[in-house]
Design goal:
The chain has 370 residues and is α/β, with parallel strands linked by helices. 26% of the residues lie in helices and 13% in strands. The chain has an eight-stranded mixed β-sheet with strand order 3-11-4-5-8-9-12-10. The longest helix is centred in the C-terminal third of the chain and has 12 residues.
Length: 370
């Protein structure tokens, strides 16, 4: 398996240059994954899923399921060994809820939805536990669409501190990108321009880049001005823009755009893909499979306290207690001491602080078929 994925690296505000292990300059994009967390599907199903307590004699089917859960490599052979009805029954028994998909390799899940599609049920048509740094992201994002199958990516980078104008361009590698949320980030019109420049047509006429982008959420991007309108028009299928909290006010004068109506606000919810599928215009050639990317990297798992050998020594606790040694006051000092006025004022402001609400616009235009 490849050891790299898309990692957003924010360029420092100074002229400092960050180099990778090979001495190349890092501007964000495909770089080697270092000490990041590992995806759950590498370890397979946890023990509580495998060692079920039964008060009955299990059937041969249940015993086979137990073997498959113990050896995650056997998941790939389900579609090869079983016919379609048997495979769907086996997959439904293995993945009883969408949360169980995190223990299945996304490439294996992709093979399942390609082969069986809607027979798996709507809940299994979405893979909600992928990180942007996963090594399979690029393969999923370049999965070609067919008359009977299409894959879309819902990318949520809302509030990301690593997303800026230079790293936004790297998202151009996600060719199946459909819904993008970059709200509450510091991107400007230069980042929108950089991403639009990744829309290319090859010499063979093949489209390269995020041409399938349909919904872009830009809420609270306070540095985004009307200069971005020219570059937002580059996406022919883009039909919904969330512009609240930005400084874009000229888009409504562009032909085809109008202020979002109440029934169209679902385009900016977490069910945007489902709402696009329900439109009268045939947006997708078939019921789409969806990959939700809601995190940049997998979280690290702290296993230091799981075994007695990994427990800290008494000297470790002694050193930690010395570092956090409290300051003792005499009785007279404690009675005459007064709280710091600045600290008290900050506490009152934080408790009474209420976020200022604004009436932000939502832009919408008529959807186009692929």
């Amino acid at each position: 398996m490849s050891t790299h994925g898309i990692v957003l690296v924010r360029r420092p505000p100074t002229d400092q240059i960050i180099l990778d292990e090979d001495g190349g300059e890092i501007k964000g994009g495909v770089v080697y994954m270092r000490d990041n967390g590992s995806p759950p599907y590498l370890t397979g199903f946890p023990a509580e899923h495998r060692d079920a307590q039964r008060n009955y004699v299990p059937s041969l089917f249940d015993l086979c399921l137990g073997v498959v859960k113990e050896r995650s490599s056997l998941l790939d052979s389900i579609a090869e060994v079983l016919n379609a009805p048997q495979a769907v029954r086996c997959i439904s028994a293995l993945v009883r809820s969408p949360s169980d998909l995190q223990f299945v390799n996304p490439i294996t899940w992709l093979a399942w939805v390609k082969a069986y599609g809607g027979a798996l049920g709507p809940e299994l048509l979405s893979y909600p536990y992928l990180a942007l740094s996963d090594s399979n992201v690029l393969e999923l994002s370049r999965c070609p669409a067919t008359p009977s199958f299409c894959l879309v990516i819902n990318l949520n980078l809302n509030g990301s501190r690593n997303l800026d104008d230079s790293s936004l361009r790297q998202l151009g590698m996600l060719e199946n990108l459909c819904v993008l949320d970059t709200g509450s980030t510091g991107i400007t019109h230069a980042g929108v321009q950089a991403l639009s420049q990744t829309l290319m047509v090859g010499s063979d006429g093949e489209l390269r880049g995020p041409w399938r982008l349909r919904v872009w959420k830009l809420a609270r991007c306070t540095r985004l001005t009307g200069l971005a309108v020219e570059w937002l028009q580059k996406w022919p299928l883009l039909c919904a823009l969330e512009l609240r909290g930005t400084r874009i006010t000229t888009l409504y004068r562009s032909p085809g755009w109008h202020e979002c109506q109440e029934e169209e606000r679902n385009l900016f919810s977490e069910h945007a893909v489902q709402h696009l599928s329900s439109l009268k215009v045939a947006v997708f050639p078939s019921l789409p499979a969806r990959v939700d990317i809601n995190q940049e990297q997998y979280k690290r798992r702290d296993t230091r306290m799981q075994s007695p050998a990994a427990r800290p020594s008494p000297a470790h606790f002694l050193q930690a207690s010395r570092l956090r040694r409290p300051a003792f006051l005499s009785e007279s000092e404690s009675e005459n001491s007064e709280p710091d006025e600045a600290v008290t004022r900050r506490g009152r402001n934080k408790a009474a602080g209420v976020e200022r609400s604004l009436e932000w616009p939502l832009a919408r235009r008529k959807s186009k078929a692929v």
